[in-house]
Amino acid sequence: xxxxxxxxxxxxxxxxxxxxxxxxxxxxxxxxxxxxxxxxxxxxxxxxxxxxxxxxxxxxxxxxx
Length: 65
Known about the structure:
Radius of gyration: 15 Å
Helix content: over 70%
Order of helices and strands: HH
Largest sheet: none
Number of domains: 1
Distance between the termini: 12 Å
Structural class: mainly alpha
Number of helices: 2
C-alpha cells in the first residue's frame, strides 16, 4: 500500500474522530452536562470512532487479502 494513501487515510480518520468528539461534547454541554461530564462524553465519542475505524480496516484487510 502506498505510504501517502495510508497517511492521508489516517489523517482523515483522526479529523472525523475529532469532529465527532467536538460535536458530542458540545451537545452534552448544551444538554446541561458539567464540563467534566461533557469532556468524558467527547472522549468516549473519540475512542468509539477510532475503534470503529480500526475494526473496519481490519475487516477490509481480511477481505482484500
